[in-house]
Amino acid sequence: MPDDQKNTASPGIPAATIVVFRNSTAGGPPELLMVTRSRTMTFAGGAAVFPGGRVDPADYALGEKLSDSLPPDEAAHRVAAIRETLEETGLAIGISGRVDADRARQARAMLLKHEDLAPVLRALDWKLDLEAVLPFARWFPRNERIPRVFDTRFYLANLGTGAVDIAVDQTENTKLYWITAQGALDAAACGELSVIYPTRRNLERLAQFTDFAAAARNCAQYPVKIITPFLEMRDEERWLCIPDDAGYPVTGEPLESVARG
Fold first, then answer.
1. Domain span at residue 147?
2. What angle do CA 139, 37, 169 make, to 5 degrees?
3. Most buried of 98, 141, 161, 194 (most Cβ within 10 A)?
4. Is 47 inside a domain boundary?
5. CATH of the domain at 54
6. Under 8 Å between Cβ of 8 and 148
């Protein structure tokens, strides 16, 4: 990390995100579930992102109870990723038991009322399958010049056929849709989508995968490490970069281009 960033670290807000895969009906690359955030949101307003949000105290409490094979902090982040996906999209990812569209809608309504996943699990006799969400990446800017710094863990989950109902949570998001990683990059390139720097880098990495199994192999090849973007001068131009050993095919972009995106 450059010297001018060494003393600007600040505590990050713990957050978790799931990249949900489904098989393409056309037989092409897998489709990913993305949401467009409301322009009124402080963080990434108007941007296309993956479902997710901050880790709540209730997530830590539930994670503590479910941490037999995982550290409690990691379990809490996976709980948060599952909860946020259910809350924002209506998808019951990482849940075992009798799951169908009607019960998922019921669970979502209960979750919006209680803001806690534990009573929802009890009411529907569901259990969490934390191994169903695969660790993919962790991004943490560590820069006090950014008003709200999130320490975000990214996970992958496989929906398979994708024959499910989804519905946008319009308190935070304005659009919910399935799109391939390359399709999202193409849409961003022509101005149809707005994507923030971490999302762009993650989409470039995700675009390499022909199916979920390929993504899983890539995760095994590149264990999760904290990714902290840093500034670097290249040919008298400032670039925003990430480490080149974390599995990403593109590791830098001119800062001017980042600002436009």
1. 3-228
2. 115
3. 141
4. yes
5. 3.90.79.10
6. no
- pLDDT for 144-175, tens place per residue? 666 678 999 999 999 877 555 555 454 454 57
For residues 37 and 137, give the distance between their C-alpha atoms in angstroms, rounded to a whole number.
Answer: 21
Q: Which amino acid is at 201?
A: R
Provide the mean pLDDT of the chain. 86
The reply to whether 250 falls in a domain is no
- pLDDT of 261 over the 90 cut: no
pLDDT in tens, 9-65: 567 899 999 999 998 877 889 999 998 865 443 444 468 899 999 999 999 999 999
Q: Which two tokens stand for residue 232?
A: 């670097």
Between 125 and 1, residue with greater pLDDT? 125
How far apart CA 203 and CA 179 sit, in angstroms, is: 11
pLDDT, residue 101, reads: 84
Helical ranges in 41-178 per DSSP H: 57-65, 72-89, 101-114, 117-124
Residue 76 has pLDDT above 80, yes or no: yes
CA distances from 143 to 7, 11, 30, 173, 228 (A): 9, 9, 34, 26, 9
Residue 29 lies in a domain: yes
Structural domain contains residue 239: no
State the first-to-last Cα distance of the chain, in angstroms, to the nearest integer.
23
Name residues whose C-beta falls within 8 Å of residue 248's C-beta, 6 or more positions apart in sequence. 201, 204, 205, 242
Instruction: Count up the domains in the chain and report the number.
Output: 1
Which structure tokens are listed for 91?
């998808």
Strand 252-254 vs strand 237-241: parallel, antiparallel, or unpaired? Answer: antiparallel
* pLDDT at position 22: 92
Nearest-angstrom CA–CA distance, 174 and 177: 10
